[in-house]
Write a structure and sequence with these properties.
Largest sheet: 5 strands, parallel
Distance between the termini: 29 Å
Protein name: F-box/LRR-repeat protein 15-like leucin rich repeat domain-containing protein
Strand content: 5-15%
Number of strands: 5
Shape: globular
CATH superfamily: Ribonuclease Inhibitor
InterPro entries: FBXL15_LRR, Leu-rich_rpt_Cys-con_subtyp, LRR_dom_sf
CATH class: Alpha Beta
CATH topology: Leucine-rich repeat, LRR (right-handed beta-alpha superhelix)
Number of helices: 5
Radius of gyration: 13 Å
Organism: Panicum hallii var. hallii
Helix content: 25-40%
């Protein structure tokens, strides 16, 4: 487990340094306000063993991050994306591809409409 919660100075470039942690299973990135879908893509590609990922209040994480998780994080079981900038399209894609997900916390997704939630679920 690696807990980087509230390390608000970490950027996408900083996340790239986690590429050597191929066996990382649990990553907490809560409130890393400087990371985007680019950083999440790095994590998804470089940490294929990831089972739990917390992105709550990573305000700039968007659909690009979800698409990368859908493609590269096939072991992901728990995901928190509350307060991220994801849309119904990204959410639907993620939930449609990652059948292994058991728990997705998604509070206050202001970019997802009711119709978007209906399509995703």
């Amino acid at each position: 487990m690696l807990n980087l919660r509230y390390c608000t100075q970490i950027t996408d470039a900083g996340l790239k340094h986690l590429s050597t942690l191929e066996e990382l299973t649990n990553l907490e990135l809560r409130c890393l306000v400087r990371i985007t879908g680019i950083g999440i893509t790095s994590i998804a590609i470089d940490c294929p063993s990831l089972i739990e990922l917390d992105l709550k209040c990573c305000y700039s994480v968007d659909d690009a991050g979800l698409w990368a998780l859908s493609r590269y994080s096939q072991n992901l079981r728990q995901l928190t994306i509350s307060y991220c900038q994801v849309t119904g399209l990204g959410l639907g894609h993620l939930l449609g591809i990652l059948r292994c997900l058991q728990d997705v916390k998604m509070v206050h997704l202001s970019w997802v409409s009711i119709e978007g939630f209906e399509m995703a679920l």
